[in-house]
Predict the structure.
Amino acid sequence: MSRQIDYGNLMHRAMRGLIRNVLDDVAANGLPGAHHFFITFDTSHPDAELADWLSDRYPGEMTVVMQHWFDNLNVTDEGFSVTLNFGDAPEPLYIPYDAIKTFVDPSVEFGLRFESTGEDDDEDLAPVEVASDLPDDEDEDDTPAAKKDADVVSLDSFRK
């Protein structure tokens, strides 16, 4: 078997590093201007930590918003912890980077989407898409008309 460069995994590591760098800056300096984040993550990831009532309410994935109020943001090599407010109830969360499905900063129309190929191997990932459109709420419309305004860069054309 010949050795190949795994561009998909290299890109995912680089994009997760970008998220870490952004969160490091926010932990040190706060959110600048109108910046804020929508972070969707896999609540069933074995290393994700959240209150039982949150994992019961969001058994597959959850989107959190870091905007006006958050506390105790601690960024590590593997993930980050943060306390967020859920209906006037502060709750600590730990989100591993590899549990993140989307990271969006709508203030500058920036977004990252991580997609798996559906196999059990967590390291076998599909390419990252960088989009300039804002995510729809819970209901994503995958029709071509809904995505015509998006500038999406896909690595599919570069993969064998």
About this structure: The two ends are 15 Å apart (CA to CA). Residues 119-154 have pLDDT under 50 and may be disordered. The beta strands are 37-42, 61-66, 71-75, 79-85, 90-96, 100-105, 110-113, 129-131.
